[in-house]
Amino acid sequence: MPRPQGFRYARHADGTVEITHRDRPAGTLRGSRAERFLTEAESGDAQLVMARWTGAYKHGNERAARDHPRNRSGRR
Question: Where is there biased composition of kind Basic and acidic residues (predicted)?
Fold first, then answer.
């Protein structure tokens, strides 16, 4: 699975953290959630952390879902 990319986050003076993906808003965190996110992002792979926190990552079952009989309409 390819590594997530294109995520950025910005801290604001009021403690809010805004996460963007390819310059589009992906999520806003406030309070204790923002603090937990910052701790995790600064100690690990920030791209992967942002992808996980926003839900914008692949789960690994896309190929299996594509090949399911219900999703094969018209393809051979």
Answer: 59-70
Cβ pair 4, 50 in contact under 8 A: yes
Q: Which residues pair with 10 in a beta bridge?
A: 18
Structure tokens that stand for 45 in this block: 């792979």
SS3 for the chain is CCCCCCEEEEECCCCCEEEEECCEEEEEECHHHHHHHHHHHHHCCHHHHHHHHHCCCCCCCHHHHHCCHHHCCCCC
User: Which residues, listed in sequence order, are joined to residue 11 by a DSSP beta bridge?
Assistant: 17
Say what the pLDDT of residue 62 is.
58
In tens, the pLDDT along 18-73 reads 999 999 999 999 999 999 999 999 998 899 899 889 886 665 555 666 677 777 76
